[in-house]
Amino acid sequence: MKQQFYTHLIEIESIIIELDKLDLSQEQKIHLTGLIDSSLHHTILDAVLSELSDSDKRVFLNNLKEDDHSKIWKFLNEKVDNIEEKIKKTADDLKSEIHQDLKEAKQR
Amino acid sequence: MKFTSKTPHYEYLKNKWTLRHRAIQNKFWEKHGQSLKHLALGSLGGLMLLSSPSPQQLPSHEFKVSRDDILKGYDQNVLLAQALSDKIPKEVRPLDSQEERDIINILSRNFGFRVKSEIDNIRLNRNYGLIGGEQHLYRYPGDNLYAHADTSSDFAKYGDAGIAPGLGAWGYFAPSKQEFSEIDKMRERYYLAVQTFLAPGFAENFGKFRDFFKFRKMLVVNPSTGQAVVATVGDAGPADWTGKHLGGSPEVMDALGLATGPRKGPVLYFFIDDPEDKIPLGPVKVKEEA
After folding, report:
1. Residue B98 included in any domain
2. Rounded to an integer, what is the distance from CA A54 to the centroid of its chain?
3. Do A34 and B53 touch (CB under 8 A)?
4. Of B25, B41, B151, the CB nearest to A1
């Protein structure tokens, strides 16, 4: 999967270590990790878009489409205070839920 | 009689995470759908598919997420495979000088940068050979396999390859985790092991050859499909007796469409003439006007 503009902010090592401890086939791993990545992606985009006006959303999405990370960050830093922290917090909240699910799955 | 699932962990997580994923998507569209649907982006749906895996489309639990990018490469570069088909020898052997010239011209024209079999009077023992899948390499002291994944999908695709117990021929990619940079990460991600020790003149010019090959940028092409990747030399090998002529990182093998089955196959591999280091590492597509 390609790098997203927020990849460097999101630590996923702890999730994959736990996932790797489960007895899963390759297909099962691919399916579950796809769900994690897509959930994180939608959640982070939601968090970012929620901070932007309609016209700024348009600029952000165009930058996203061009996949120009430095342009994305320049724009976001101009428009939103502490955007990195907000993205990290959003991802951390979802990761906590995922960790809890992994804990429960192990008890099954 | 009590029925139990053979894979209770998976069933539990699949059900829970599918529901959550659906809820997240619904919330996203409820909040932003109205304001986004007028945007001139083609469609946001298309945008999301481009930038994110789409597990909601998976028929229960199939491979679509992982193999999607390989198929994209295949579609784009299939014309290159056709152009190469009558230039490639039937058996996997070193190219003769005419074949080498023809293929270099085809590749340079198709990718829009210059590929070469020789730079600074240094060449490899061959440019057409069998590539085999290698493991990940330690990138800095204290590195581990899990840290190699940027996303959890990366882990699912490339984690099973494992990590080599020893270091690459040039040691770590960075002296410490703090000094580990994006370029170091990409060099390990798209690394090759080539038979530097079989290059003509290697023994007589060890120091010069060692420095020349370190992170030397190369183009690798699967001539059967046209899939191609820009990679760097990150290790020396494989040994002559293995019958293989070069090795590729798990990501290189994936980009070449050789990540499954026996994890080996014939490839073309040439130096890239890129003195200003402008050509990015990773899968590469044929230029549209080629």
Report:
1. yes
2. 22
3. yes
4. B151
